[in-house]
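lol so apparently i was supposed to do this last week
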Amino acid sequence: MRIAVRYYSKLGHTKTIAEAIAEGAGVAALSVETEPRLSEYTDLLFLGGAPYANTMDNRLREYVDNLDTSMVGKVILFTTSNWSRRTIYAIRKALKAKNIPFDMDYFYAQMLNIKGRKGAAKDFAMEKVRQP
Ligand SMILES: Cc1cc2nc3c(=O)[nH]c(=O)nc-3n(C[C@H](O)[C@H](O)[C@H](O)COP(=O)(O)O)c2cc1C
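anyway here it is w/ flavin mononucleotide bound
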C-alpha cells in the first residue's frame, strides 16, 4: 500500500503534526509547496492544513483542486487551528465534488498543544495504516 503525507503550514504547527503522522505511517511528510503533485498512485493520502482568517491558504486550495482523482485511493485529513475545523469541511467539500473518497475521521490539534498531540497523531496514522 502506497502512503503519502502532504501539508501546508505557515507557522509550523501543521508541519509538526504532519511529521508525527508521517512517522506513524512510515513515510516522509512533504509540503504541497515543494510537492505540488502526486508522482505515483497513492492508496492513502494524509492531507493537512489550517485556517487563516477562516480560509485555507491558496496553496492548499490549489493542491486540492489539482488532485488527480485517478491518482488517489482515499484521503485522510488533519488540521491545526485555534478552534476552527473549517479546513476539514472545506477540503471535504472539494473532494466530494471531485469524487475522491475521504475518511470521515480526521485528526485535530489545537495550536497551543501541538507538541502534546504528537503522540496521538502518530497513533492515529498507525491505526489508519493498519485499517485503512
Ligand atoms: C493570520 C492568522 C489567522 C488565523 N485565523 C484563524 C481562524 O480563523 N480560526 C482559527 O481557528 N485559527 C486561526 N488561526 C490560527 C491558526 O489556524 C493556527 O495557528 C494553526 O495551527 C496554524 O497552522 P500552521 O502553524 O501550520 O500555519 C489564525 C492564525 C493566523 C496567523
